[in-house]
Amino acid sequence: MTYEPVPATHREVRLARRPSGAPAPGDLEVVEAPLPEGEVLVRNEWMLMASAYRELMKERPGLPLPPFPVGEAPTGRTVGTVVRSQDPAVPVGALVEHFQGWREYAAGPGGAFAVRDRDLLPGPEYFLSNGPTAWLGMAGMAEAGPGDVVFVSGATSGVGSVAGQIAKARGARRVIGSAGSKEKAEYLVEELGFDAAFDRHDGPALDLLRELAPDGIDVFFDNTGGEQFEAAVQLARPGARFALCGALAGQNGDDTSAGRPRLDLLTAISRQLVLRPFACFHTPDQIDGWNRQFAQWLDEGRFVYPRTVVEGGVAGAPQALFDLLDRKFYGNVLLRLTGGTDRIDEGGSR
Ligand SMILES: NC(=O)c1ccc[n+]([C@@H]2O[C@H](COP(=O)([O-])OP(=O)(O)OC[C@H]3O[C@@H](n4cnc5c(N)ncnc54)[C@H](OP(=O)(O)O)[C@@H]3O)[C@@H](O)[C@H]2O)c1
After folding, report:
1. CA–centroid distance, residue 246 to ligand 1 (Å)
2. Is the pLDDT confidence value at 346 over 60?
3. Distance 85 CA to ligand 1 centre (A)
């Protein structure tokens, strides 16, 4: 059964070569290719862009994921609509989530596509939030809750912008975020409801954090590592919980040592800090649990979806990645691959 007319060819991005240093034009190429074939055919609508893709372009990424293959379209979290199907469990017209991003159409066995309830969230792109990771870290690892003073480093990242709001929604007393500019620090406070934020370029992280958390912190959600991790250790209260999520300080530059902070072991031991590095594998339980929680908080008006929408279709994907790595975006970065919408949305979007 076919849902709508489909073309004979589509556009996809391929990894032309592994970058040396920062990814650059020429590393990724946009090509016209025959429409992929499979039991299920999906027209891709949105893809989540992320810093991690830089790492996955390397031959040996430092992440628990396979490298992008050279000469093929990379992987990426994507949602789209089923336009042809021979699998009754994945019917035409269904909204599905999958990993065949960077292309206009995806195809494969029905099991490669997870059906989502279109009515649960305000739009298909909401299913691509970094919520599962933020939720696992803030609720599962750090157990942030009433009375806690929480610090989120890299708080304008996709994960960080959701994690800080989760802490607030769970009753944290004070949520502090770090950002890469004054404008981004303002965005955290004015649009996402953080209690305070600082621009990490304004001075030593220890001084900036101490000013905003003079009595110390109970929870640290770390997206950056480096100097901010070291500052959080110094300001941790006894028994503070650290959810260690990312190492942006080293990941997005060539100085990987920036992502490898020193641990003041004596302080960590004497304060009995709980350090929890974690990896979110987006299991069905993690995804469904988050989406239901997200829907409830959106309905209650207690949450915004922090995001930047990038137009330009598949051809715009390489530049969207370069711009993300240049820190031009806010929150979850969503690339519209095909289709369009006139929906007018609430705050948190750019
Ligand atoms: N543990 C897990 O399961 C898991 C899952 C997903 C992601 N992660 C990790 O979580 C982190 C956030 O991921 P994401 O996809 O949400 O990130 P993202 O959206 O790609 O983050 C982009 C933002 O990171 C900030 N940034 C860039 N370079 C930085 C630097 N040198 N120091 C500090 N901040 C920098 C910039 O914000 P500013 O301009 O405000 O600095 C930039 O806008 C990454 O380290 C990622 O690998 C972990």
Report:
1. 7
2. no
3. 36
Q: Is residue 61 part of a domain?
A: yes
Ligand 1 centroid–CA 285 distance in Å is 24
Region 222-235: mean pLDDT is 97
> Mean pLDDT across the stretch 175-198?
98
Specify the higher pLDDT residue, 342 or 32. Answer: 32
Enumerate the β-bridge partners of residue 97: 79, 114
Taking the CA of residue 245 as reference, the ligand 1 atom at the shortest distance is 1
Average pLDDT across the chain, whole number: 95
What confidence tens digit (pLDDT) does each residue in 241-262 have?
Answer: 999 999 999 887 666 777 889 9
pLDDT at 341: 47
Residue 299 lies in a domain: no
| Atom 21 in ligand 1: residue holding the nearest Cα | 157
Ligand 1 neighbours by CB, cut-off 6 Å: 50-52, 130, 133, 154, 156-159, 179-180, 184, 223-224, 245-249, 251-253, 278-280, 324, 327, 329, 333
pLDDT of residue 347: 62
Domain housing 47: 9-128+305-336
Same domain, 99 and 198: no
- pLDDT for 342 beyond 50: no
Confidence of residue 157 (pLDDT cuts 50, 70, 90): very high
Cα of 158 vs centre of ligand 1, distance in Å, is 7
Residues pairing with 197 in the sheet: 177
Which residues 6+ apart lie within 8 Å of 318 measured at CB?
A: 13, 23, 25, 27, 28, 30
C-alpha span between 345 and 241 (Å, rounded): 35
Nearest CA to ligand 1 atom 15: 50
Q: Give the mutation target among 53, 248, 321 for probing the ligand 1 site: most ligand atoms within 8 A of CB.
A: 248
Domain count, the chain: 2
Same domain, 251 and 138: yes
